[in-house]
Amino acid sequence: MNFLRLNITLGLLIFATWSTVAQNPLTIPPALTGTNFNLTIQSGTTTFYSGYNTPTYGINGVWMAPTLIINKGDSVTFNVTNNLPVNTTIHWHGLHLPSKWDGGPHQIITPTSTWSPRFKVMNDAATYWYHPHGDMKTELHVTKGIAGMIIVKDVAEAALTLPRTYGVDDFPIIVQSKAFDVLKQLAIATEDDSTIMVNGTMYPYLNAPAQVIRMRLLNGSTMRTYLFGFSGNIPFKLIGTDDGLLDTATTLTRIRLSPGERAEILVNLTGMQSQTVYLKNYGAELPNGIHGAAIVATGAAAIQDYNLNPLNGGNYNILQLNVVAQTSSPVTTTPTTLIAQTPINPATAQKVRRILLEPQPPVDSSKMTEGPFLMNGKSFDMTVINDTVKLGQTEIWELINKTLIAHPFHIHDVFFNVLNINVNPPSLSDRGKKDVVLVMPGDTLRFISKFEDFADPVVPFMYHCHLLHHEDEGMMGSFVVIDSTTSIKGYANMNISVNIYPNPAHDELHVEGLNKNTTIQLYDVFGREVYKAQSIQDKTTISLANLVAGNYVLQLTDANGERTVIKINKE
Predict the structure, then answer these.
(1) Which residue, among 279, 262, 68, has the nearest Cα to 153 in the 3D structure?
(2) Going by C-beta distance under 8 Å and a sequence separation of 6 or more, which residues neighbour residue 77?
(3) How far apart are CA 262 and CA 265, in angstroms?
(4) Predicted confidence (pLDDT) per residue in 19-56, tens digit
(5) C-alpha angle 242-244-246 in degrees, rounded to nearest 5
(6) Does the reported pTM lie above 0.85?
(7) Residue-wise pLDDT tens digits, 48-64
(8) 488-570 in CATH: which number?
(9) What is the CATH T-level fold of the domain 346-482, as seen in this structure?
(10) For 171, what's the count of Cα atoms within 13 Å in the CB-facing half-sphere?
């Protein structure tokens, strides 16, 4: 028996004995509040299995990360220090902020360095999260434990009668599936993710008061989609999706969340003291084609060893709720009316942008489910800008899935409203403000968004599949937002009014035809400024001798604010 099959067999035994193993109290991550946050990324070991020390990563600890609670309208600073021996990044998933502070693969945090993004919180009250987003290392770093929740509060949400005491009646619920090898080390790129954790806790229980509780569900898994519900089909109220509360609460018994998606729900436990309720995954009800369903594809397209994982297509407990006495000030009713929403009007769209989700050629059956996958025929390249968006422009994005597996599509910078799926209206769980949506095999999904507030012709935002193995293999694109009210001449050496040579360059780059007092800036592929000067005559020479070979962006800004942006290659 090989290691994979042995470990899956062990996983089956553990899965089958949920009710007999010792339960662990659910870890409630510590909450950090204020406007200035010190976050240290570090490594260590965690004991998940007796006798085994498992190497892990964490923030302000060796496993997982604290919850950050911030207020809309505040100006915040995050001082992120990387004490790992390797590069990493931190992406503020769902937050609307300048691209240079977004924490994508261009904002690398090198070992021992501190990155300090600072921005005004512009998002509505909702549940967001933060996690690494490095080039080809996202799956590894999230798997090893770097993931935490962000809660944004605002005055509109505060006016509603809702549970909001963190860890008392308002609970963070980060659900992740993990794979362990036979030595109990965390593993990636395997179908053996047969261990379910909530907030990093295995086999968790939560003492929940007999009143209305709020659960902030986050699917933080690297690949797995869940269909959440409660034992006995207890109904719950959906009050919010990714980027904000809904206009009205909706009664459901199931909600599907793919990796990266969030939902806020209310569960009324009034009158249920001393009872036990389970938050469950109803995986047997997931349609084929979703990672986590019983079947993704069959025949030659079937994922190797997929059918051996007991979680795929299974119904199982995720979190045990022991209903205890009410708190001193319980919420015992659920509101119907929440926050008035005005979806973006499709008639205001100025552009339709099409994104094809497709396998990398040459295509065979296995690539239709296991990849690598491309977006519009391209794999991610740090030096390439795939799309250019105008500041203030409203766009419809059309996502067409030409593979045999569902992909959760995530866009940075903005929220969107789902318009339709194959001309049909979106599901209840896809209503409201979203930043991740699951695109089923063969489907065409359309959403609308407006690109407001932040323009930067140099540093891009990302869009990508949130199945992290797919992302790391290149299923990602980048876009810049440009301000069309400020003249920008040229990109990729088009229509420039200055003479720049040689390009490619070696030790020196010559720029001629400059206006007086032009600001000259050179950026590397990570968006870092590596050169800055002010012209005093119509030509200048830039020394490249101390720069590594690769692609750069030269930005020239004259005294009137007119900019020229040119791609440069240093040999």
Answers:
(1) 68
(2) 35, 36, 37, 116, 117, 118
(3) 10
(4) 446 599 999 999 999 999 999 999 999 999 999 999 99
(5) 105
(6) yes
(7) 999 999 999 999 999 99
(8) 2.60.40.3080
(9) Immunoglobulin-like (2.60.40)
(10) 26
